[in-house]
UniProtKB/TrEMBL annotation:
Gene3D superfamilies: 3.30.70.270, 3.40.1170.60. It comes from Mucilaginibacter antarcticus. CDD domains: PolY_like. It comes from the Bacteria. Residues 10-151 form the UmuC domain. Belongs to the DNA polymerase type-Y family. Keywords: DNA damage. InterPro entries: DNA/RNA_pol_sf (IPR043502), Rev_trsase/Diguanyl_cyclase (IPR043128), SulA_CellDiv_inhibitor (IPR050356), UmuC (IPR001126). It holds the Pfam family IMS. This is Y-family DNA polymerase.
Length: 500
């Protein structure tokens, strides 16, 4: 595939943004300033100020001498980076590979994307028209290399689409600064009389290396395409990523459902062929108005069952607000796991144990509706102390390290920490005849014999516990215990659980 790149240059990024929020600024020249070495220096200008000779780097006092009524606004720290990042995220609707080029440019790898808009010219024009309609002054170029696209966008013809394999020809008449060279190299080129790239491009590399260094040659190689230039993408592309652009904005539930099914069809076919299934997936919907909405799902076990995964997304379609319409859908599978052959056999099984896919799918649907964090599975843990005798499982298929204790009944709700109670009893070793818990008095009508639970031997300093199952006058059953012997100093009673 022929590699193609786009460079977008927002010439007045911050001042355009301010004008969008304060429309009255559109009719007056204004600048942004910041202190530098005991001087107030201009860091950004709007178009009106630039047309009257105001440039970045000029002292504010000098600019005031040129335009007495020039409006001066303090620089907005870090705003340019945040704004550029937002614009980059908006551009993902045109290609998934978007990188920031601070302070005011974006680089996009558009290989294989332009045909969706008809042609490369239509692709670039559609993108620029959208930005300009919003109020941004932007220039762009498309070429075979990042360096060539950047050079033409900043110093060549506006909105140029350089035909494939013509990028070197487009570079020749441009000034050396178009190669993104450092200040020292540019000064040396100026002193030697090299005012265009074509004037030194044919010189032997050994001579250029001696005079200008390796960084100089690297910039040339990147622009010519001899060396690949890496991109630091805003959102690195997931290994399992699908995109679905819409020729017409989607505004209906039916349209969103069709889009989700189409994306799932593509990604699940690939997963099935590779013997894998997804555990988590994120749907993103890019709206015409620039908004981003979506939904995410999770499964208890890897799945590539289209029908099941669609049911999970269907639970969240109501939360997707299309507004003026959705123009791009993307689906990313962030967590992928292997699907074993055993699972495929169980897919048609009627079993209803933990290995049943019916159970896994039910938990997926409930979890994606109320939040997967609200569904918990517990496994036994090797500890005598009841509050430590279980732990939260990490998945539906995790195996327990030990077995549950089934010798005596356990309450359906065990408090994470036993809570103190006041008790009255006839004999010291007997269960209480009444107890007070949180200010409520409970008269005990029935009680089982005591169950003694000792602490682990390496924690032998802790007293043992004598547990009782008691029932009050209203038929409610509780799990109480006395800590230590009744003769022990400081022996106390606690409530530890509730029976259903």
């Amino acid at each position: 595939m022929q590699k193609r790149f786009v460079s977008l240059w927002f010439r007045h990024l911050l001042t355009d943004w301010l004008t969008l929020r304060q429309p009255e600024l559109k009719l007056i020249p204004f600048v942004l300033v910041a202190p530098e070495r005991n001087r107030i220096i201009i860091t950004a200008t709007n178009i009106l100020a630039e047309q009257q000779g105001i440039t970045v780097g000029m002292a504010s006092a000098d600019a005031k001498a040129i335009i007495p009524d020039l409006k001066v606004i303090d620089q907005l720290p870090e705003k340019a980076d945040k704004l550029l990042n937002r614009l980059g995220e908006w551009c993902i609707r045109y290609t998934p590979q978007v990188a920031l080029d601070a302070p005011c440019s974006l680089i996009m790898d558009v290989s294989g994307c332009t045909h969706l808009w008809g042609s490369e010219q239509q692709y670039l024009a559609h993108m620029l028209n959208r930005f300009r309609a919003k109020g941004y002054d932007v220039q762009a170029a498309m070429a075979d290399t990042i360096g060539a696209a950047w050079a033409v966008a900043h110093f060549g013809n506006t909105d140029a689409v350089i035909p494939p394999n013509d990028h070197i020809k487009a570079l020749l008449p441009l000034p050396p600064i178009a190669l993104r060279l450092d200040y020292t190299a540019l000064e040396r080129l100026r002193k030697l009389g090299f005012y265009a790239i074509k004037s030194f491009l044919s010189i032997k590399r050994s001579a250029l290396r001696r005079r200008f260094g390796n960084e100089f040659l690297l910039r040339i190689d990147e622009a010519l395409g001899n060396v690949d230039e890496p991109l630091q993408l805003i959102h690195p592309i997931e290994a399992y990523h699908e995109r679905l652009p819409s020729l017409e904005p989607i505004r209906t539930v039916e349209g969103i459902e069709i889009a989700i099914k189409t994306l799932l069809q593509s990604i699940c076919e690939r997963l099935r062929d590779e013997g894998k299934g997804l555990r988590t997936a994120v749907l993103k919907c890019y709206r015409v108005d620039g908004g981003l909405v979506g939904a995410d799902i999770g499964t208890n076990r890897p799945s590539h069952n289209i029908e099941h995964l669609f049911k999970l997304f269907a639970l969240k379609i109501d939360s997707i607000e299309p507004a003026l319409g959705i123009e791009l859908f993307t689906l990313d599978a962030y967590k992928i796991e292997d699907v074993s052959q055993d699972q495929e056999v169980l897919w048609v099984s009627d079993s209803c144990d933990l290995h049943s896919n019916d159970l896994a799918e039910l938990l997926d649907r409930v979890g994606n509706k109320i939040g997967i964090e609200n569904i918990r599975r517990y496994l036994p843990y090797e500890s005598y102390w009841p509050e430590r005798a279980l732990r939260k499982a990490t998945s539906l298929t995790e195996k327990p390290a030990t077995t549950w204790r089934t010798g005596r009944p356990r309450p359906s709700i065990i408090l994470p920490r036993p809570e103190p109670i006041q008790v009255t009893f006839k004999l010291p070793d007997d269960p209480p005849i009444l107890f007070i818990y949180k200010g409520e008095r409970h008269e005990v009508k029935k009680a089982d014999d005591a169950e003694r639970i000792e602490c682990e031997w390496w924690q032998s300093k802790r007293p043992h516990r004598d547990y009782y199952v008691v029932e009050d006058q209203q038929g409610r059953r509780f799990w109480l215990f006395r800590s230590g012997h009744y003769t022990d100093e400081g022996a106390k009673w606690y409530l530890h659980g509730f029976f259903a």
